[in-house]
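request received
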Amino acid sequence: MDNGRIEQIIDKHEGAASSLIQILLEIQSENHWLPKEALTRVSERLGVPLTRVLHIATFYKAFSLVPKGRHAVHICTGTACHVRGAQRILDAVQDTAGIKPGETDLDMRFSLETVNCLGCCALGPVMEINGKTYGKISPAETAAVLQKYE
Amino acid sequence: MSKVLLKIDGRAVEAKEGMTILEAAQSAGITIPTLCHHEKLDPYGACRICTVEVEINGRTRYAVSCVYPVEKNLLVRTRSAKVDRIRKMILQLLLCHAPDSEQLLDLAKEYGADRDRFEQETSFCIHCGLCVRYCAEVKQKNAVGFINRGTKREISFVPELAVLECWRCKECFPLCPTSALQAAYVFIESLKQGDDSPALLSYNK
Ligand code: SF4
Ligand code: FES
Ligand code: FES
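response:
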């Protein structure tokens, strides 16, 4: 992410310290992670100590301090999905993508995470990629779905 | 500022409005144990060891004295069977993180806390926040802060700032109730000198 874009995002919020989380969220959503330079810049421009920025950036799961893949894959392991075989979905995805939850593959294609209920239990087991939900999915179908994301 | 009259351990104490129970007690020479409190810092209420029994209108409750403001006609008991039990449990929990902290062991003796009551998970830090808050509020350097949350929460120095500020300051060291900061420092020093300090030896094993 180029610095100009970071400045733009900060400008949009008029460099207000109270917009810290919003600014971080915008950088996160465009860049998929928060590089150190971005955090330092935000800290300088907003006049918020870097320790405080780090405190917040490490507190919320929505932020990542390590590079993330182009596609965010979420497998629901909540109660309903669990009883409907979420583990087998997870195993299948791990096999195809070659990564475990919390990891990103070398080509930066996928980042895999498990979540505890996406709020659509009736569709379980659920896989979500970049916010798009794939419900009632079977382990065999996951590979074909992942194929669609380059 | 208006005066507030309250009773602490049966003694009439006159406090100023806005004072905390802890401050009122201290001004009357009554001791309440604290771990995360420091006069120069804003009240924080992290450790809960300063819990006391308060009675108002005949109702008894438990209050964290370092953040609880004084009220008129408040009856405070700084020790009771239940207060002691609460403090004992807090100490036992904190001791899993810092089993060798002298400050904690002294309190443990007083409250009959067993340092091996729970499985040890030594992180050495009890999250009192004294170092973090002192660095921010008094020194205004913000070289150390908290990161992560819940069971993964820990303190973390910003290396670029620490290298400039910390070596000559180190004022947070004596504040730490567990000596975790000194320990880390001594350890790093020994690494730098590459000597055969016991810490280094056990690390290399
Ligand atoms: S390192 Fe020490 S002073 Fe700092 S938060 Fe942990 S226990 Fe408190
Ligand atoms: S448990 Fe998976 S959506 Fe609710
Ligand atoms: S001294 Fe009151 S909560 Fe720590």
